[in-house]
């Protein structure tokens, strides 16, 4: 896996401003340093790590120009600091001679990074660390060579050649490690946000599926009413009841207009739902989504509901939208049936070629006199404080969705635990991908 680019807030727009910020940060960070060798000839500062981190963070910048800006700023900063620290003994050429090699380090380092800039985010973090270590080593050697030349010191010293590669490796891997950790954290955050949006879209899609299914069914009813109304118009005319016939014809025309409006609404919903191009989900993923959605629903209703699952069979299906629609409605009914505390169990199993989705709850249950009515269109036991009926699609439409797959929706008799249990049984061949 390559290093993931980090997106930073674009609070400064111009490229020049960004390079200026990099240069200033590097110059200040460079003052936090250690001197591994005697004197001030060669020192290791935090500026190198800061420069590498900022180059990784702002990989869109021109590296060579950024290195020139950083090097020049470091030189100016250190020379100015020397002048401020010892104004009486300050010697400009001597200070430039002392700090010029530091500028060379950043220029060489930036040039080396420019060589791998295009492939920066394709490199494995370990390989990236190795490349940066080599660049750091070469840059340090260039700086040391320049200092040795400027001050007439011997270039080759055993302790230097041993220490500089170690420093380059430790510093490079430490910095790239921090950057990679931040990149991974950001990638996870982005993935979580994308997952949240996908779940929201799926829930919206499942809601639209129920509305589309209901609207299609209503349009079929309207079509039959229109046909019967037109037949009645013909019969009335045959009987010589022309005035009544004209009234019926007007009603027929109005019904036809309602049908056309419904067709336009259906076309718009179909575009929003995009039901024909749904990707696949596993049954376990469907159950997880339903549990999460209804867990949030129960908290919104200020109820303490524990939702349990048992997935005995799992496979990919392209029909996840209707399955989520069915399970969401059954689970939402269970949440509403629980007064304050309770449990909902969602189980998935296969028996005799049918995939069974079983939703049970420990709610108030269904009255005996209502059991024969629960699947009737328009039936509901849920009213708000103003006496307005619930607006869910209803068990009759849930049954119709299950029936569209040649499945069955059943209300089971309460067992020993007195749970209300609905079973949605689908032919496995209708759901399972590749069957």
Strand order of the largest sheet: 4-6-7-9-8
Q: Care to count the β-strands? A: 9
Question: What is the average of the pLDDT values?
Answer: 78
Tell me about the largest β-sheet: 5 strands, mixed
Q: How much strand content do the residues show? A: 5-15%
Radius of gyration: 37 Å
List low-pLDDT spans.
Answer: 37-42, 383-392
Task: Give the class from helix and strand content and strand pairing.
Answer: alpha+beta
Euclidean distance between termini CA atoms: 35 Å
* Helical content band: 55-70%
**Topology order in helix (H) and strand (E) letters:** HEEHHHHHHEHEEHEEHEEH
Shape: elongated
User: How many distinct helices?
Assistant: 11
Short description:
The chain is of the alpha+beta class. The protein has helices at 15-29, 46-57, 63-85, 92-116, 125-151, 158-238, 242-273, 283-300, 320-337, 394-404, 428-431, and strands at residues 33-34, 44-45, 281-282, 304-311, 316-317, 341-351, 354-361, 408-412, 420-427.
Description of the molecule:
This protein is an alpha+beta fold and 435 residues long. The protein has eleven helices and nine strands.
Keywords:
single chain; 435 residues; alpha+beta; five-stranded mixed sheet; 11 helices; 9 strands; 11% strand
Reconstruct the topology from this structure:
Elements: H1 15-29, E1 33-34, E2 44-45, H2 46-57, H3 63-85, H4 92-116, H5 125-151, H6 158-238, H7 242-273, E3 281-282, H8 283-300, E4 304-311, E5 316-317, H9 320-337, E6 341-351, E7 354-361, H10 394-404, E8 408-412, E9 420-427, H11 428-431
Parallel strand pairs: 4-6
Antiparallel strand pairs: 1-2, 3-5, 6-7, 7-9, 8-9
């Amino acid at each position: 896996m390559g290093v993931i680019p980090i997106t930073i807030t674009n609070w400064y727009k111009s490229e020049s401003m960004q390079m200026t910020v990099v240069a200033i940060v590097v110059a200040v960070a460079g003052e936090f340093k250690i001197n591994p060798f005697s004197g001030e000839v060669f020192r290791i500062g935090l500026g190198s790590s800061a420069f590498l981190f900022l180059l990784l963070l702002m990989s869109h910048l021109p590296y060579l120009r950024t290195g020139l800006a950083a090097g020049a700023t470091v030189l100016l900063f250190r020379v100015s600091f020397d002048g401020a620290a010892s104004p009486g003994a300050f010697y400009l050429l001597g200070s430039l001679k002392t700090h010029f090699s530091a500028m060379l380090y950043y220029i060489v380092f930036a040039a080396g990074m420019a060589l791998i800039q295009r492939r920066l985010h394709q490199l494995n973090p370990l390989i990236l660390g190795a490349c940066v270590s080599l660049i750091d080593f070469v840059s340090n050697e260039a700086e040391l060579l320049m200092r040795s030349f400027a001050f007439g010191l011997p270039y080759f010293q055993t302790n230097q050649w041993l220490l500089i590669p170690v420093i380059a490796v430790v510093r490079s891997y430490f910095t790239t490690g921090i950057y990679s950790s931040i990149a991974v954290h950001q990638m996870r955050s982005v993935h979580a946000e994308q997952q949240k949006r996908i779940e929201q879209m799926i829930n919206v899609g499942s809601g639209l599926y129920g509305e589309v299914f209901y609207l299609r069914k209503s349009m079929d009813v309207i079509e039959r009413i229109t046909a019967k109304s037109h037949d009645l118009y013909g019969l009335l005319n045959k009987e010589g009841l022309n005035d009544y016939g004209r009234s019926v014809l007007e009603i027929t025309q109005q019904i036809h207009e309602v049908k056309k409006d419904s067709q336009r609404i259906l076309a718009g919903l179909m575009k929003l739902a995009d039901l024909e191009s749904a990707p696949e989900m596993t049954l376990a993923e469907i159950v997880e989504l339903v549990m999460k959605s209804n867990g949030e629903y129960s908290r919104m209703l200020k109820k303490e509901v524990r939702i349990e699952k048992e997935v005995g069979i799992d496979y990919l299906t392209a029909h996840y939208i209707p399955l989520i629609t069915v399970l969401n409605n059954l689970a939402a009914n269970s949440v509403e049936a629980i007064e304050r505390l309770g449990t909902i169990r969602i189980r998935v199993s296969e028996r005799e070629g049918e995939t069974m989705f079983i939703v049970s709850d420990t709610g108030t249950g269904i009255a005996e006199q209502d059991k024969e009515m629960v699947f009737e269109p328009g039936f509901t036991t849920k009213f708000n404080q103003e006496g307005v009926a619930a607006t869910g699609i209803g068990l009759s439409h849930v049954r119709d969705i299950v029936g569209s797959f040649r499945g069955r929706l059943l209300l089971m008799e309460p067992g020993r635990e007195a749970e209300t249990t609905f079973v949605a049984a689908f032919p496995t061949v209708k759901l399972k991908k590749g069957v």
